[in-house]
Amino acid sequence: MSKPSELQTNPADFSGVDVYAVAGNPIAHSKSPTIHRRFAQQTAQAMHYGMLMPELGEFAKAANTFFAAGGKGMNVTVPFKLDAQALADVLTPRAKLAGAVNTLWQHEGLLYGDNTDGAGLVRDLQAQGIALANASICILGAGGAVRGVLGPLLEQKPQSIIIANRSIDKAQDLQQAFQAMADAHGVLLTVCPVDALGSQSKHAAIDLIINATAAGLSNDSPLSDAIAQQILRPTVFAYDMVYGTVTHFMQQAINQGCRVSDGLGMLVEQAADAFLLWRGAALAQQLNARAVLDELRQALATKAP
Is residue 170 among the annotated active site residues? Predict the structure, then answer.
């Protein structure tokens, strides 16, 4: 039995067409092939975009094989973003800052790595009317997802960013890594245990709260209901990086009258950045990421029970 087209990623099988792929494990759920297929249609690009699922510990081998066979570029998702960073010959400044790579491409014999997650988050928030300049932001979590978006958020010059995490040590490590950048942009960068949110007066001034933990994948929330009631109010915009469902965190925010969003727009916008890195910035005028997002939302709504 032949494999579905999106699982066929050997560039030798696609004569005259540039081949790209997304690598992750698991990968069957990925929306990236659909997104990039639509981007290619919008911009009249001859390309194929497939999926790779390397075994754990086998990412470098799979990526090297793909690029050696003529692959042009690769998106990288969980759990291989650190592997991708280690594999890249050249890292962009934002990839170095993020400590992880989600986009790879070849140029003049070298493998380049970038991280488009933060730029994707910023553009999705802006597209939803969220003003980031002078805003008070709270980010829940202190893992790779937070590290990937902190730089681009700081560049928007919010008034303050609170990193709230169960382990204060991890939050302090992030604060130390980004303190110089925060100072350069005039941003007050602080840390707080999640359980202590609501204990200071500044917590009542939060404009935007971002759940960058994976709690939503298991229908959980990093916030207790009591703390959610303390810090969430109708003027707060609550954003969960998990997409495709109303998470417990989002429901807590809805219960307090907040506007909410999942992370599907971030997924589409970070993909748009990767697409333009691969195919050329001149295509930006033809690319309509929000139209692709609307199509994905309609498809998800159709599948909903």
Answer: no
Residue 75 structure tokens: 């998106």
**8 Å CB contact between 51 and 77:** no
The β-bridge relationship of strands 47-52 and 90-91 is: unpaired
Q: Is the pLDDT of residue 94 over 70?
A: yes
Catalytic residue among 3, 31, 81, 170: 81
pLDDT digits (tens, 9 = 90+) for 236-285: 999 999 998 899 999 999 999 999 999 999 999 999 999 999 999 999 99
Taking the model in full, what pTM does it have?
0.93
3-state class (DSSP) for residue 105: strand
- 248 exposure class (CB count in 10 Å sphere: 0-12, 13-18, 19+): buried
* DSSP state string for 135-165: -EEEEE--SHHHHHHHHHHHHT--SEEEEEE
> 3-state class of 110 per DSSP?
strand
Across the range 110-124, mean pLDDT stands at 97
Is the pLDDT confidence value at 204 over 80? Answer: no
Question: Length of the chain in residues, anyone?
Answer: 305
Give the three-state DSSP class for 38. Answer: helix
Going by their DSSP bridges, the two strands 73-76 and 103-107 should be labelled as antiparallel
Q: Mean of the per-residue pLDDT values for the chain? A: 93
Radius of gyration of the chain (CA): 20
Q: What does the block give as tokens for 217?
A: 């994948």
The token pair at 31 is 């929306």
233: which DSSP letter?
-
Residue 69 binned pLDDT confidence (cut-offs 50, 70, 90): very high
Q: Which residues of 145-180 are buried (b: 16+ CB within 10 A; e: fewer)?
A: bbbbbbbbbbbbebbbbbbbbeebebbebbbeebee
Measured distance CA(241)–CA(289) in Å, rounded? 17
